[in-house]
Design a protein that fits this description.
heterodimer; A: 309 residues; mainly alpha; MetI-like fold; 2 domains; 16 helices; B: 554 residues; alpha/beta; D-Maltodextrin-Binding Protein, domain 2; three-stranded antiparallel β-sheet; 19 helices; 16 strands
Amino acid sequence: MVTIADPLERTDAPATRTSGLKDSRSYKVFTVLNIVFLIGLVLVTIYPFVNLVAQSFSAEGYIRAGEVNIWPKGFNTTTFSAVMSDSMFWINYRNTVVYTVVATVIAMVLTTSFAYATSKRHLKGRSFLIGIAVFTMFFNGGLIPNYVLISEIGLKNTIWAIVLPNAISVFNFLVMKAFFENFPTELEEAAQIDGLSTYGTLFRIVLPLSKAVIATMVLFYSVSFWNSWFSAFLYLDDKRLFPVTVYLRNLIAASTDASSVSAAAGDVPQVNANIKAVTMLLTTLPILCLYPFIQRYFVSGIMLGSVKQ
Amino acid sequence: MSTTLRRGAAVAAASTLTLTLMACSATDDPETGPTDGGATSADPGAYDGQRTAAMDEFGIDSVFKATEPIDISLLYRDHPGYPVLEDWLIFDELETNHNVTFSRVDVPLADWDDRKSLLLGAGDFPTLVPVTYPGQETQFVAGGALLPVSDYLDLLPNFTDKVEKWDLQEELDLLRQEDGKFYLLPGLHEKLRPQYSIAVRKDIWDGLGLSLEPATWDEFADQLRQVKEAHPEFDYPYSDRWQLNATLNAAASNFGTSAGWGLGQGVWWNGSEFVLTGATDEYKELLTYFNGLVTDGLLDPESLTQEDDPAIQKFVSGQSAAIGTNDQTVLDYRTALEEAGNTDFEVYHIRVPAGPAGDILAGSRFESGQMLNADLADSEHLVATLQFVDWLYYSDNGLEFAKWGVEGTTFEKDADGTRTFIGNIDQGGINPSDNPEPLNATYGFHNGVWMPAHGSTFDLGTSMMREEVQEWQAAMSTKEMQTVAPAWPLSELEQEEASILVTALNDQVTQNTSRFILGQRSLDEWDAYVSELASAGQARYLEIVNGAQQRAAG
């Protein structure tokens, strides 16, 4: 039996720096500047989130007066209970979860199998298959033909209209293919000698060793499906089928774009800023929580395939 | 043999011709039908096979009730302020008393225009498409997806009656496409409903003894000057929002031109032909006025660039004394003032002053309206659907139903016709209570999908307005109406060329408008600017527009 080193451990190994020599002065300056710069960057990145959290707990009046920055003013949780009591929000939220999970599973199965197959150089018609995929990166049928196609094959107003049309992202496919191409052939040969079939090799040797790239792809796919609203906009007619992103878009548009769209309606178009903040917070939270769990794979995953060993 | 052949060909040709003529007369028939707005029962033979569920007698005072249940597919604009609910009273009422149900395609407000374009472009859309502004239908006409509603005016007695009664025929002709038909049923206003003007600080105006109804724009400038002198704490007494576009639009008609949001297609009818608005002397006069305000330090130069929020904050925090407004935003200012603790500030929405050209009000009396799917032309429900549309959107009864709901359930009417809400039902704060039930969110009435033009008639249109707004409307109604320019419907090719030209021209005009007002470009360079426009395709654009006008005038 071959013993296999997890590729992750290899990349983690040289992390500790040997500190026998004294750091040079310029290196110290560099480190300090580096830290200051990175902290600044973190602050700039985090501020909008903190502001959003502060707004979601603040009273409407303070937000409109522009007084809420990083700390809530007029603290209350009534907005949270108001948003959470809207059944449509939860229906759409559930849709988003379902769409994201189903779409990610389908996308992973298709992308992995396509990438693994085309990574084998002995595959006949390989460059043709890759060519077709790459072609779609640059050319597509256009909005209306796509719409007509999806509705003609009866996918409109079903989950399949959301999860099937974008099942393979060509970029993700190329990254995965590169990873599989660099996978040591010795391992697969050894597996074959030990009597594994092609599928056996894939499922018992290749995939367990590809956790890094798989985790990365899962993250890429799930974030993009979670955030996507465009397919829903195109193919769904019933608001009970909408993902929560469409719900959120509508809320935000009501206050920013209302002058042109709803002037005739005679309505009060303002949706309160704190309601928007709460909805945004609730919408982004789950996908934010995904990052810490996948991050350890993420760094090595995106690097994979970039260096040949 | 050659004779036989020739004879055969002649017979074939003749029969083709007959068929064509028959086909023509079949499709043209509706146009020759009665268009006098009377009951449609006059011609019982017409629309054979298309009268399923239709009323036999449908006229101006009729309340539509389908003779058998009818389902109409509807592109529904879902507003987040009142998300659609299945159990809305309006659905119940329509089903029980009018035999109408809807198959809805829900489109969130945010994507309304895009989704509409997509569905109409793909030719896959419901029968009834509401909330469409005049002009938006033009792009879909060539595709043949829309019903030429002008062919069916005999089925729309209320619509034709109001057009005639309110003298809207000229404006309606502007909607005609190159084929002479129109494809949109616009929402109609009995009287123009202006909204935009300037909000001033009443406490300051009163303190200085200034009139709250400045008669002219020059008087308004004088007032600002006095405010600046008396209150040196203001950097600028007037800081505007909407990048000044709303104010330019409101002011322009009084200067004999159009500008800002009203620039539109960039052409101005001078009585005999169309000229480029931005190149006229009147336009220059308007710019000279606003440039004067900036030069004298009365108008904040940031007015042309700042977002709305900073402008509002300046006004609310007492850094400026005047700001653009409409009849809704004036309430926002008051709320914001209260929240900021400046309770001694008072806000007043002034009447738009007169200008060098007179005391003139411009604008269209059309609101967003409805388009219909061309498939309806062959539907058995043609007559019933059009009767329903005519009743709901254009009859006094239907308009009241859409705006106020059901008499006795949501509202009551006293002897002199004043309507009041029942219980704690409310719309826009006119029936304040501890636990208000918004009419639109709870019951589905007062909803832009079924209520274009706020109820159309002057009575309904003002029925939910605050007293202050009613007074302002009354003051504005003494203005003279701007004459309607003649129609210039373009062919598809012209449309394409014209839209490219006008984009470039309007860009030039708006850019230079800002520069002239801010003084970045001196008004001495006006002639140079006009010749720049000439080289940006002005001549070709005017040629297309004037050509189309002459063609339409016949």
